[in-house]
Design a protein that fits this description.
Elements (H helix, E strand, L loop, with lengths): L8 H4 L20 H16 L3 E5 L6 H11 L4 E6 L7 H11 L4 H6 L3 H14 L3 E6 L7 H11 L2 E2 L2 E2 L2 E6 L13 E5 L8 H10 L11 H11 L3 H12 L15 H24 L1 H8 L3 H13 L18 H15 L15 H6 L16 H5 L6 E8 L2 H10 L6 E8 L2 E11 L2 H9 L11 E4 H14 L1
Parallel strand pairs: 1-6, 1-7, 2-3, 3-6
Antiparallel strand pairs: 4-5, 8-10, 8-11, 9-10
Helix pairs in contact: 2-3, 4-6, 9-10
């Protein structure tokens, strides 16, 4: 039975589908601070670098959702090929999928004796047209070693000192690619949802399926959801679904399906074993009695041993007039004592500049790198820049104060500017650094940045794209 199949609350709340099911719709993407930042970084990696994005996160945090949204936002300059994580997938079927996705005629595929060579030719054709072919690989940890090795070979192909194929690879654990492909890997983590994002996430899921009204979950519900899920969206969906069904939200319930037949079978098997055991005992009762009855010599030896054994001292237990409790009450109190010792899970609130724990630990003040900031370096200053010039976007946040805190914390100075844009009907604050005449000068400058600045994830953008984003925001407001 599907846990999310047509729950009764759909008609009660006048929804057109289940809000917390596992179906991934490209148009339904909750733009949380963490996921939006990771998405922008991955798009930057495949558009403006030779890096292979390795998206690492446990199941349920939204890797597949992020890949789906990445494909949705890919423009005409990108051509996407999906490879789903499947242990039965092999290089032959994967090659055919990619050839079809990259626009190779099926007749040409059937007539080809070497699909790998056809694939390489197609990649070169697309590159000449200024189109970047991109592999999106989900659940790469499930793929066979043979296929991963073959994919590593594809990612190592070059022409005119340029890699022919880009990739974003999602996995639950760090994986190693073969050959030169491994040197291109840029690991990107996907952290859990923050507790502050939880109410917005739940309301977003409800409104996308037609809900109109106030929140359906109390503050107590939200705290309970977050404590049980630790910010895992898949687990949050399960808990919210149970709450709307009128059940007590509990993740343990998911393990209780379809156990009736098994329980019944085990009960009859246990009864049969017991009956057979009794028959055998009765049949061999006489022999069993002989085995258990000691001989006179054994009795004498036992009596001697008992006499020689020194009795231990008795342990004295002092009872201070405690009332005797029944067994059930004692068990409840013991359980309550154990639960009180378990600390509440801490909410890991990662600021928007974080992509890995190492990034945070390496970041230090950078006042010696760039010049002091001026009041002119705000949104108006951004609009005055040459649209063909480039800048680096360092971070973004729903909270304006977080941008100021970021600037103060790392003593940022010089050509640093903050601008506003609209995301999901809310103002999004972003921080940029630097003015560069062209892409190459920007990349050359960033390559010379000392640590820890050179470890800070960033997004290289043209000023005209930033200015367009600002203009759209002003029109909406």
């Amino acid at each position: 039975m599907n846990e999310f199949a047509e729950p009764a609350y759909i008609s009660r709340l006048t929804l057109h589908s289940a809000p917390f099911n596992s179906t991934i719709e490209p148009t339904n993407f909750f733009s949380g601070s963490q996921s939006e930042h990771r998405l922008n970084l991955l798009l930057h990696l495949i558009r403006a670098s030779n890096k292979i994005g390795l998206l690492v996160a446990i199941n349920g945090l939204g890797k597949t959702t992020l890949l789906t949204q990445l494909k949705q936002r890919a423009g005409d300059e990108l051509r996407i090929c999906n490879i789903e994580g499947n242990a039965q997938q092999n290089s032959s079927t994967a090659l055919k999928q990619c050839l079809i996705a990259l626009g190779v005629d099926e007749n040409e595929i059937r007539s080809s004796d070497d699909h790998a060579e056809t694939f390489r030719d197609r990649l070169q054709q697309l590159r000449k047209l200024q189109v970047r072919p991109v592999l999106l690989i989900d659940d790469a940890n499930i793929l066979s070693e043979e296929l991963l090795t073959e994919i590593s070979i594809w990612l190592g192909w070059q022409s005119d000192n340029e890699f022919l194929l880009q990739a974003v690879i999602a996995t639950t654990n760090d994986i190693k690619l073969a050959g030169p492909a491994q040197s291109r890997v840029q690991t990107v983590d996907l952290p859990p949802m923050t507790e502050q994002e939880l109410p917005d996430y739940l309301m977003y899921r409800l409104t996308t399926v037609g809900y109109q009204g106030d929140t359906l979950f109390s503050e107590k519900d939200l705290k309970h959801f977050y404590r049980l899920s630790s910010g895992n969206p898949a687990l949050i969906n399960q808990l919210a679904h149970q709450k709307l069904l009128g059940l007590k939200p509990n993740l343990a319930k998911s393990a209780r399906f379809n156990v009736g037949p098994l329980h019944s079978s085990l009960r009859w098997v246990g009864s049969g074993v017991l009956v057979i055991s009794l028959i055998l005992i009765l049949s061999y009762q006489e022999k069993i009695n002989q085995w258990l009855t000691p001989t006179p010599d054994e009795i004498e030896l036992t009596e001697q041993n008992v006499i020689d054994i020194e009795e231990p001292e008795l342990v004295t237990v002092i009872v201070d007039n405690d009332e005797v409790k029944d067994n059930e009450l004692a068990q409840r109190e013991e359980l309550a004592a154990l639960l009180s010792d378990i600390p509440e899970p801490e909410v890991l609130e990662q600021s928007m500049d974080q992509f890995t724990q190492a990034d945070t630990e390496l970041l230090e003040p950078m006042s010696e790198i760039i010049e002091p900031i001026t009041e002119d370096h705000q949104q108006d200053w951004v609009m005055q820049q040459d649209g063909s010039h480039y800048t680096f976007q360092l971070m973004g946040s729903w909270e304006k104060q977080e941008v100021h805190d970021f600037i103060d914390k790392y003593a940022l100075a010089g050509d640093v500017a903050m601008f506003e844009s609209m995301r999901n009907g809310r103002i999004w604050y972003a921080l940029t650094y630097g003015v560069f005449e062209n892409k190459q000068s920007a990349l050359d400058a960033s390559n010379k940045w000392p640590a820890p600045l050179n470890t800070l994830p960033s997004w290289l953008r043209r000023f005209d794209s930033v200015q367009k984003q600002i203009k759209n925001t002003v029109q909406v407001q």
